[in-house]
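User: Batch of two.

Assistant: Item 1 of 2:
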Amino acid sequence: MGTDVSEPRVVVGVDGSRSSYEALCWAVRYAGLVGGTVEAIAVWELPGLYGWSGPAVDMDVDEEETQQKMTQELTDVLGAETAGSVRTHVVHGNAADVLLRAAEGAEVLVVGSRGRSGFTRALLGSVSQHVSQHASCPVVIVRSQEQ
């Protein structure tokens, strides 16, 4: 992802959940305080891909369309000017693994407390729990105000 070491990198996972949007806002505020840049990472993984049977979904994911959707979501959450300063990456893979790799050398990794597929009563989602235990940088877990 980013390799520029001249300014602190703030990596944030974005998955379309309210919690991830609040994590994104936190990351932008923090980056402003430390003079850093924000890298928003969206990860996609096809369900059933690693199971015993073939996937029951279309394997053709339009990455350009996904990138455009992410850009629109960032604009909706942050406003056009702020969203334009955020570096975005859409990556295929396991969310926790991708975020851990992206956060190598970062100032901080920011994630929401629960993603889109979390149980409503769970305190932490599986991705936020995993990255908090394995990241090579500090991790901030942002809890949604709706929880």
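Item 2 of 2:
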Amino acid sequence: MTASHESVSAPTRRTVVAAVGAAGIAAALSACGSSDDSSSEPSGDATKGGAAQDGSGKELARTADIPVGGGKVFGDAGVVVTQPKKGEFKAFTNICTHKQCPVSAVEGGTINCPCHGSKYSIEDGSVKHPPATQPLAAKEITVSGDSITLA
């Protein structure tokens, strides 16, 4: 008697690639799932728990830390705070709109990017010197007494 040989076929390369691709897509989609992080709602209410994730409610600086006619970059918070006129505080994203480099300094009345030389107004974030063509996006801050916080 001869032993029966069942035909066992190995999976084709196409089957393996498809299975791996499907698993990767499933993992990516589950990571992108809705966490209901209220990104469509205005932030600023630290009692909702948003402060721990986006830095809102955390003190960035004291008003005395921001020079009149200048500003300061807070890289960890992703913001630049300026004081164009005494007692007037503005905030902008710290990411250059040209090639997404972080801006590095506020000098000479402008917010400056070291990568390609773009400069932005401390008053409204508008482009003062190319190659950037788009302004820095405004960020919300709250000034309470002598404390500046992300809103």
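The first strand starts at residue 59 and ends at 62.
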